[in-house]
Amino acid sequence: MPAHRAFSGEVDTGSPQKMRQTQKAPSVDWDALSLRIVFGTLTIVAMVFLVAPTLIVLLTSLTASESLRFPPPGLSFRWYYALIDADQMQRAAWNSLVIAFWTTLISVVLGTGASLAIARSHARWLRAADLLFMSPLLLPALAFGFAALVYINRLGFSPNIPFLVLGHVVVCVPFILRTTVAALTQLDPALLDASQSLGASPWMTFRRVTLPLIAPGLGSGAFLAFMASFDNVPVSLFLADERTEVLPIHLWQQIDTNLDVRTAAASGLIIVFTLVLMIVTERMAGLTRQMR
Amino acid sequence: MRVKGDESSLALPLAAVFVAFFVAPLCILVVLSLHGEAAMRTWTAANYVKFFTDAFNYSILWQTLLLGVKATLVCLVFGYPIAWVCARSGARLQSIIVFLVIMPILTSVVVRTFAWIVILGRQGIINQVWLGLGAAEPLRLLYTETGVIMVLAQVQMPLMVLPILTVMSKIDPNLADASRVLGAGEWRTLWRVTIPLSLPGVIAGCILTYTACITAFVTQTLIGGARLIYMPLHIYQQAVGANNWPFAAAISVIFMVAVLVIVGILGAIGRRSETFARA
Q1: Strands, DSSP E only, in chain B?
Q2: Claim to verify: residue A125 and residue A188 sit in the same structural domain
Q3: Does A9 have pLDDT greater than 70?
Q4: Of A118, A144, A169, which has the smallest distance from its Cβ to B17's Cβ?
Q5: How far is CA A124 from CA A114, A130, A193, A261, B163, in A?
Q6: What is the CA B200 to chain-centroid distance, rounded?
Q7: Is the Cβ pair B255, A43 closer than 8 Å?
Q8: Secondary structure letter of residue B192 according to DSSP
Q9: Pairwise pLDDT comparison (B6 vs B81), residue with the higher score
Q10: Residue A66 located in a structural domain
Q11: Higher pLDDT pick, A100 / A86
């Protein structure tokens, strides 16, 4: 700004435009402040929006009344005690835990091997395989679940637990690949050379050098895969047999038919269970670092 | 080197599982969609003709694709500021924000949707506040598209925030400083420096959010109810309700092709934005 205009502005305060010019320069930076206010407000609104539903379920599940009301008229653990008698829900929860356990175990074993290959080998077919392995994250899981049902029907089988676990492995293994490949690419190859030149076999190098160093990535991936299996609806809907009801589908039916407070209590338990596992994974493997 | 050869073979077990239990089922699905009956005797394109000549069918596809656009835009409007604020915070606040952002995606989707039923219902929290403010009629949110978009945005937000955050924390802070020193204001720096450089993360976030939103069977069905039909529910109703497997297979194939085409287009834009960001 030319000096004479600034000067004239200071003297002649009659015109509103000049007035704004003189006041702006020394005081607040409106440009920076407005950006901060807009982005800060959006962030706060979004964070409330993200966290509120979880808190509301937790509070609702502690209600002392017969109906789902928020805010609850009084607090009690009665609906959690009521879960002790909910046999069907307990069976469904147990089924889900067993299926998630086997899914995670198989996914970790197969996924670690595939991650090693993807991170270290330059074979051309692996680039295509990598895309294939990640595609269940993008494709509609419900269409895959239906396709798998059609397929095992053609093979002459009916839905059963091993097929259900295989179906879960397909949709859960991408989570393990993502975090484990990332951990492997950050590994210093000099450590592997050192181990090898000191006479360690490839297996020994893997167990004593590679595995401890990629454990945080692998652990975070395993946690994500476990939760994805525990929570899966679209694949279980088609591949679970009549006797094996899984928890999310059982809860869904409860929500659809009779919306009672026991559902809220079960949801509360799932939230607490998830939070505990998240905090453990965060402490042991730095989950929030692995997810970025 | 011998060791290298060994390592590529480590992917073989997973590749075998995928060929036998992912590629093969999808191939059978395509074959089934080209037949008139579940026993697969006569070849026909009738299922596809039926889908694209019936307005009811293709409007479901269109509504589903549109739903994804709307929910993704909401995620972007709220998700970008979260990533922007997070990238500028200290390490401790950063991990708290990321923790809170990923918590919804790890909590069971049925539980999250249930929470929203408590919030959006006729006697839900929003309506209690709304009626408390003196409104005569409760708002209809449950079983409406607005409700579905709100819930999808909350459920899928992490998929938008995380990729943007990854790219944004790698941007050299000197670039923004340089822009300011050269006289650009904060907004101008945002539009001309930060947003173009974070575009690859935005595109990656949009791909993940979009595909998650249009395929979110549980959320769409529980919040949308039986009258708002989107593609996943349509597939389910044809496969299980109507027991018309060939037609359900055709709808599945059409839906998957649509998803792949959109991912392909967004991916191509993403690659261009990456070369732009590097230039």
Answers
A1: none
A2: yes
A3: no
A4: A169
A5: 14, 10, 24, 55, 27
A6: 17
A7: no
A8: I
A9: B81
A10: no
A11: A100
- Residue A26 parent element (H or E): none
Q: Do B107 and A54 touch (CB under 8 A)?
A: yes
Do the Cβ atoms of B97 and B88 come closer than 8 Å? no
Instruction: Mark yes or no for CB contact A32/B81 under 8 Å.
Output: no
The pLDDT tens digits of the residues spanning A202-223 come to 899 999 999 999 999 999 999 9
Question: Tens digit of pLDDT for each residue in A118-143?
Answer: 998 888 899 999 999 999 999 999 99
Q: Which of residues 35-54 of B touch A (CB under 8 A)?
A: none
Residue A7 lies in a domain: yes
Chain A residues close to B98, C-beta within 8 Å = 288, 291-292
**Per residue in B136-158, pLDDT tens?**
888 888 889 999 999 999 989 99
pLDDT over 90, % of chain B: 53
State which amino acid sits at residue B230.
Y
- Interface probe for A, chosen from B26, B111, B262 (most Cβ of A below 10 Å), is B111
CB contact under 8 A, A53 and B18: no
Enter the tokens of residue B91: 């390490």
Is residue A188 situated within a structural domain? yes
Q: Is the pLDDT of residue B112 over 60?
A: yes
Q: Based on the domain organization, do A22 and A100 belong to the same domain?
A: no
Q: For chain A, what is the radius of gyration of the CA atoms?
A: 28
B residues 198-227 closer than 8 Å to A (CB): 207-208, 211, 214-215, 217-218, 222
Residues B206-239 have pLDDT tens digits of 999 999 999 999 999 989 988 899 999 999 999 9
- Section A140-163 average pLDDT: 94
> In this structure, are residues B162 and B102 in contact, taking their beta carbons and an 8 Å threshold?
yes
Nearest beta carbon to residue A114 from set B11, B118, B128:
B11
Residue A103 belongs to a domain: yes
Whether residue A104 is found in the same domain as residue A175 = yes
Residues A23 and A146 occupy one common structural domain: no
**Domains of chain B by range and CATH?**
45-278 (1.10.3720.10)
**What is the C-alpha to C-alpha distance for residues A103 and A229, in angstroms, rounded to an integer?**
7
Assess whether A99 and A192 both reside in one domain: yes
Alpha helices in A62-86 (DSSP H): 78-82
Domain extent at residue A9: 3-48
pLDDT band at A3 (very low <50, low <70, confident <90, very high): very low
| Top mean-pLDDT range of A59-73, A248-262, A267-281, B103-117 | A267-281
DSSP per-residue string spanning A116-129: HHHHH---HHHHHH
CA dihedral B81, B87, B93, B94 (to 10 degrees): 100
- List the 81-120 stretch of B: residues with Cβ below 8 A of A: 81-82, 84-85, 94-95, 97-104, 106-119
Cβ–Cβ contact B252 with A under 8 A: yes
> A37 with A111, same domain?
no
How does DSSP classify residue B143?
A: T
